[in-house]
Amino acid sequence: MPADQKLSHRELELLEALRRLGGSARSGELAKVLGVSEETVRRTIKALAKQGLVQRVHGGAYLSGPDTADSFYRRISKYTEEKQSIAAGVLPQITDGMAIFLDVGSTTAFVAKELRCRANLTVVTNSIGVAQTLANHNGNRVHFLGGEIQSNERGTFGHVAEQQVRAFALDLAVLSADAFSAKHGALYHSATEAHLAAVVAQAAERTLLILAHPKFDDMAPHRGPQPEMLDLLMTDVLPGRKYRRALETWGIGLELAPTQDAEAASEVKAKKRASLLE
């Protein structure tokens, strides 16, 4: 920080809170930590962003700098429309009373918000955000896995998390990935995340992989579940031919999430049919 860059007491407090929370946090979390209103937090974030000390994202902020390049909040702010579309597509796959797993992916965070309309779910998760979204709501029972917390992912990983998830009989696992390969399937930057995903897939009756279309052009070093363990891949844009061939070879179904244009067209058609019946 430049010597002539003077910060208020509130700004210094918020920066310190972000550091304690792993470099990123939602406005609501910061408000609780600092004992102030969310509006005060938003104003402080805005002031710090002007000075280049934090980056603002929808619902929160993360510290600027190379150490936070892969921050959860940085990732969740990208391709939000595509992720929302995928989350809407996942919703019909999950009915009241199911036992499901949701991972720490940014797209999965959108799925969790969609699921607030479901009831009596048994939710197993290693995501702090998912647990906060669905706990104590509509009769849901949320089981948060133990293990080592990775602050940049806002979740838990490792031997403890893997052992605990094996105790559940899951109807459906909803997994994300950092990349997708036509040779290896789901890929991850973190070895511990890749290994947990493989364990979860073994514990689930069905496994759904959700990916925004840019993931098909990305690369990552660690292999996740065996492709044959996956039942369905949901994305927002039809993947290339080599990916479709690989999915067919592995027996993985492919489903495209509804687009906003398609949803709007469906609403128009429904209104026209209703008017004809009147």
Q: How would you portray this structure in words?
A:
There is one protein chain. The model is unreliable at 261-269 (pLDDT under 50). 41% of the residues lie in helices and 21% in strands. With 278 residues, the chain is α/β, with parallel strands linked by helices.
List keywords for this structure.
278 residues; alpha/beta; 7-stranded parallel sheet; 3-stranded antiparallel sheet; 11 helices; 15 strands; 41% helix; globular
How would you concisely characterize the structure shown here?
With 278 residues, the chain is α/β, with parallel strands linked by helices. It is built from eleven helices and 15 strands. The chain has a seven-stranded parallel beta sheet, with helices on both faces. A three-stranded antiparallel beta sheet has the order 1-3-2. Strands 10-11-13 form a three-stranded antiparallel beta sheet.
SSE blueprint:
Blueprint: H1 9-20, E1 24-26, H2 27-34, H3 38-50, E2 54-57, E3 60-63, H4 72-76, H5 80-90, E4 99-102, H6 106-114, E5 122-125, H7 128-134, E6 141-144, E7 148-150, E8 155-157, H8 159-165, E9 170-175, E10 179-181, E11 185-188, H9 191-203, E12 204-210, E13 222-223, E14 232-235, H10 241-250, E15 253-256, H11 260-277
- Gyration radius over CA: 20 Å
Specify the oligomeric state. Answer: single chain
Q: Tally of extended strands?
A: 15
User: Mean pLDDT, nearest integer?
Assistant: 87
